[in-house]
């Protein structure tokens, strides 16, 4: 039996982050497509896995643990795979700091603007503008913070890079122009050059798949 099952949907940014981590750590996983349109994520069987009724969910059948929240799943997989966890506790805490910044500052503007552009959601004009400004502002801040740095934490890639990349990668679909954000583009290219990297279109299957 495959140790891990990832439950998600290919269009989901948080599911992408987990798929990226699994691919980049060469971890085999079964994949269960959760059909958000039919409300599969609000069915009792799914709510038993994730009380918030959201994807992604990762089942670890070996340790009999079921996790939700993409950043927590990355943190868990760093321990289980021994990869991307930073060299010591200080680096892990710095990585957690970035993950919380991503969840708090970066995610909402990018995901909502992307959802608007792709026609998933509708927003009144002022809200759409506020979402776009939030996305652009956070990306600008990230660009500044990457000045002179190869990676977000320490001397090598960590879950901070995979997590934040997994959000920033949707800037394109959100139609945020990164032309002026050279440090951000350089760092994204470094993540994309890592072994096992898959982009937002190729990391997740469109339907359920056994490893
Ligand atoms: N903080 C969560 C966010 C998860 C999330 O927003 N999932 C979306 C899909 S991208 C979802 O399941 N939406 C359905 C809903 O909220 O009802 C994470 O990082 O895992």
Secondary structure elements and pairings:
Elements: E1 4-8, H1 13-24, E2 29-33, H2 44-47, E3 57-60, E4 65-68, H3 70-81, H4 89-117, H5 125-145, H6 159-168, H7 182-192
Parallel strand pairs: 1-2
Antiparallel strand pairs: 1-3, 3-4
The chain binds glutathione.
Residues 12-14, 36, 41, 53-56, 69-71 line the site of glutathione.
Number of domains: 2
Helix content range = 40-55%
Largest sheet: 4 strands, mixed
Q: How many distinct beta strands? A: 4
Q: Termini separation (Å)?
A: 9 Å
- Reading the helices and strands in chain order gives EHEHEEHHHHH
Annotated CATH topology of the largest domain? Glutathione S-transferase Yfyf (Class Pi), Chain A, domain 2
Shape: globular
Proportion of strand residues: 5-15%
Cα Rg:
17 Å
User: What's the mean pLDDT score?
Assistant: 97
Q: How are the strands of the largest sheet arranged? A: 2-1-3-4
Based on the structure, what is the oligomeric state of the protein chains? single chain
Bound molecules: glutathione
Give the CATH level 1 class of the largest domain: Mainly Alpha
CATH architecture of the largest domain: Up-down Bundle
Q: Unreliable stretches, pLDDT < 50, 5 or more residues? A: none
Counting DSSP H or I runs of 4 or more residues, the number of helices is: 7
Q: What class do helices, strands and sheet pairing give?
A: alpha+beta
């Amino acid at each position: 039996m495959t140790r891990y099952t990832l439950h998600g949907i290919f269009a989901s940014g948080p599911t992408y982050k987990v798929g990226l981590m699994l691919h980049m750590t060469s971890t085999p996983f079964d994949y269960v497509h959760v059909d958000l349109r039919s409300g599969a994520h609000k069915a009792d069987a799914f709510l038993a896995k994730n009380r918030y009724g959201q994807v992604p969910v990762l089942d670890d059948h070996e340790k009999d643990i079921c996790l939700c929240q993409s950043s927590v799943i990355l943190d868990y997989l760093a321990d289980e795979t021994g990869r991307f966890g930073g060299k010591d506790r200080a680096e892990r805490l710095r990585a957690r700091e970035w993950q919380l910044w991503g969840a708090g500052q970066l995610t909402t503007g990018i995901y909502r603007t992307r959802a608007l552009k792709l026609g998933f959601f509708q927003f009144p004009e002022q809200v759409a503008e506020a979402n776009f400004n939030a996305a652009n502002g956070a990306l600008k801040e990230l660009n500044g913070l990457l000045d002179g740095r190869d990676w977000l934490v320490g001397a090598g890639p960590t879950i901070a890079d995979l997590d934040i990349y997994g959000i920033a990668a949707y800037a394109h679909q959100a139609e945020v122009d990164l032309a002026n954000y050279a440090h951000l583009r350089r760092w994204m290219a470094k993540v994309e050059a890592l072994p096992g990297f898959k982009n937002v279109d190729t990391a997740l299957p469109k339907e359920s798949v056994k490893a």
